[in-house]
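>> received
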Amino acid sequence: MKHKFVYLLLLLCLTLSAWAENASNIRIQQTGRDIVITYDLKKTSNVRLLMSIDGGDYHEVKAVDGAVGNHVSKGQGLQITYHPLQNQERFIAKNVRFKVEAMSPYEAYANRDRPIQTYILGQYAYGFTPQRSCGFVFGQNYYSVGWGWFIDMRSNWNFNHFSPPKDASTMASGGIYSWYENEEGKDPVYPFYTGKTESTLFTMHAGFSWVFRLSANRFNTLGFYFGLGGGVRRMVMETTDGQWVEYSPTSYKGFSGNIGLIGSIYGLTLRAGVNTIAFKYGEIEAAIGWMF
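>> returned
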């Protein structure tokens, strides 16, 4: 039976390093045919042991046991035992380097190799008429190329007068001085108003975004977005006989677009920009949510 040997140049060629500052006070020793790495852990982390030989890339070492794997509890004097002869008869190498990679569960999630970032945001907008509305944004970024897409929808959630009132004629540019037909076949009359008004707003966009990463954390990003779609903003006024007529000077519909900036910090995602309907009505919009 062949004897198994392990050759390690411990004093000159074997070095250690830590990742993310979670692991510290790292020591190494050879115990028989095994290598024992002792370290301190500042907080509960996912721990891996990586190895590089002769200046090559680091790769994860699989033949290990001890304080290694997911959700290793913080502590001092934790040990990882590497069994280099577990899956091979000999281990002969120079310039062997080990790295203790200790990431929090979130850091491990944020740095895993996933090509898509998905985000869901709640959105709020303010128009100076004044008009307030809220809605949502859903999108994805393909961070390997920087580009992404999104859809957003926003409304003041008052759909009582989304369509023009049936009893009112089409309002002319005169607004409150326009007339409507009280009954079919009768002469038009000029309405009197109660002073009560309501408005309806609805916009929807689909668009593109471009972002770049600010750090190794895949959820630290900054970029811009641009969307196109359609929108309606309708103002109606109540008459003394209980009907509603549209006030055309502050009612708009047609093309809608938005543009702005989007960024994420450790998953917390913010978006801010401007929106317009037919280049006649404008709003400032902002959104906040989470990227995963």
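>> The longest strand covers residues 193-213.
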